[in-house]
Amino acid sequence: MHTTLLGVLGLALLGALHAQDSVPVQTDFQQDKLTGRWYSIGLASNSNWFKEKKHLMKMCTTVISVTADGNLEVTSTYPKGDQCEKRNSLYTKTEQPGRFSYSNPRWGSKHDIRVVETNYEEYALVATQISKSTGSSTMVLLYSRTKELSPERLERFTQFSREQGLTDEEILILPQTDKCMADAA
C-alpha cells in the first residue's frame, strides 16, 4: 500500500511538472515592448487565497519596467478597502526569453512566470506556477492596455485557463473600478 501511494504521488508530481513544461512562452518575446502600464482584466487561480478573496477583487493597474540588469520591476496598485495598496515584485529573467522567476520570502513561495502570448499593444496572457512547502497552485493573468478587451480576448483567457486545469469557479473577469487607477502612473 505504501509503495503504491508513493508511486501515485510520484506520477502526480511528474504530471504537474510535465503540465508546466507544456505551458508555451511567446515566440520571439520582446521584453522592451512589454513595459508600461497595464490593467489586470482577468485573474484565474486554484489557490486558497484566491478562493477566499475572489469576491473582493477588482481591476488593478500594473506598471512594468526593465531594471538596469535586464529584469522586470512589476508594480501593481489595487484597491483594498478604502486604501490603494501597492505591491512591488522583481521578476528575474531566465535563459528563456519571456520566462521569469520570482521568490516571495514573506509567503515562502517560488513563482515560474511565463508570458504565454501578447501583441504588446492590446493584451498579454501570463501563466504562473506557484510552489510552496504546502503545495503548488496555478495562476493565469490577463492584462490589457485599456480597461476593456474584446470578447474574443476574454474567451481566449477563459479557454487557456481551462487548459491549465482551472474550473469556471476559479476564473474571474475582474470588475472595473476607477479607484486607484490614477495612482499607478
UniProtKB/TrEMBL annotation:
EC code: 5.3.99.2
Annotated ranges, domain Lipocalin/cytosolic fatty-acid binding: 35-178
Signal peptide region: 1-19
Pfam family, one: Lipocalin
Subcellular localization, as worded in the UniProt entry: Cytoplasm, Perinuclear region; Golgi apparatus; Nucleus membrane; Rough endoplasmic reticulum
Enzyme class: isomerase
Alphabetized UniProt keyword annotations: Cytoplasm, Disulfide bond, Endoplasmic reticulum, Fatty acid biosynthesis, Fatty acid metabolism, Glycoprotein, Golgi apparatus, Isomerase, Lipid biosynthesis, Lipid metabolism, Mast cell degranulation, Membrane, Nucleus, Prostaglandin biosynthesis, Prostaglandin metabolism, Secreted, Signal, Transport
Gene3D superfamilies: 2.40.128.20
Listed GO CC annotations: extracellular space; Golgi apparatus; nuclear membrane; perinuclear region of cytoplasm; rough endoplasmic reticulum
Reaction catalyzed: prostaglandin H2 = prostaglandin D2
GO biological process, one term: prostaglandin biosynthetic process
PROSITE patterns membership: LIPOCALIN
SUBUNIT field: Monomer.
Family the UniProt entry places it in: Belongs to the calycin superfamily. Lipocalin family.
Protein name: Prostaglandin-H2 D-isomerase
Organism from which the protein derives: Spizaetus tyrannus (black hawk-eagle)
Taxonomic lineage from the root: Eukaryota, Metazoa, Chordata, Craniata, Vertebrata
